[in-house]
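Structure ticket #2291
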Amino acid sequence: MALIVQKYGGTSVGGIDRIKHVANHIKATVAQGHNVVVVVSAMGDQTDELLGLAHSISNRPPRRELDMLLTSGERIAMALMSIALNEIGVKAVSLTGSQSGIITDTGHGNARIANITGYRIQENLNLGAVVIVAGFQGVSQTTKEITTLGRGGSDLSAIALAGYLKADRCQLYKDVDAVYSCDPRIVSKAVKHSDLEWDTMTRMAWCGANILHPRGANLAQKFNLPIEIKSSFDLSLTGTTIKGIAEMEKFGVKAITHKEKMAILSASLKADKGTFSAINELRCQLWELGEAPQIQSQTINGSCVDLLWSVAASNVSEALKVLTPHKEGSSSIDVKECGIISIVGSGFWQNPEVAKDISRIIDEDKYLFFEIKNDIITIAVKSEKNSESLKKIISDLHEQFFESK
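Resolution: structure written out below.
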């Protein structure tokens, strides 16, 4: 008998038929003699719908109230899943994040898990029940407030619970069947990874691969916990197992990821205490939005700070509000919209040929930024009126590094 933690994403539980489908799959797992903990996301696009309601009332709704609102989506899904399981003869009980003992810091919108005190989960497992946990949420022990873990936070809920419970398996069921070398919607010949290392998956997630929460693979590595990425639509597929550490000094490209609708800010700011406070305020604002700047550079140049920073295009106005009061003299803050492409792998620093390969594909006049750092090559290219130009570059890069080798 194994203890298995399964997580089902929003499309996996996007309607009553999908919930019934998942319930039957859980029943089959229980029939094999396993104990099961299930983590669910909100149904379909419900989180976006709730956000839309909030923003129809206020441009800047209080983050506490957003957490109270958005966590209702997962509570609906958990209760419906428990009802579906009980209806087909499987004893099940639903628990919110706080009832499950998921303790976080005080942050709203992008909280970090500090601890888990999951005695109610263990108590119900001992009674032979399947435990359905509302993902994406927890409670701050300091403030006693409900918190959320950021976009994709149900992955974190499942991985943290699996680590705490010392589960035998952690399976994340999604609307994709595996992790690929590139977005298969862009590149039809994308290569399916049967195995992938924790650190590679972490870098891919931070660079735009929307398969796993960026902190998820890192958390799994702390627990030495293998993760299985599987399809909730075709349960016969094997998917991708994420585990282990990449081999030292082994060169190779593992994936090409991208982010659309980005922007690069470049500015010359006064080098005083107010400037650095403003930069840190921008960093905190982006963190609350779940956005880690992929391009960030601060260089002190005499009495100025030369800043280069990437943000989502939708967040440019907020960034300008923070930084504009600190710009040097009559200088302006330059904003260039872009797409960011990341080549993720290992050993790039010892293989200059990879940069030459890239230069053969991307025209010089398209570059806004190029950097090789921490086994990631980051390329910012000028935005076109549509995304087809970016997709063409991604396709050509994939052909170079995967299809022609």
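Closing remark: The CA atoms of residues 194 and 319 lie 40 Å apart.
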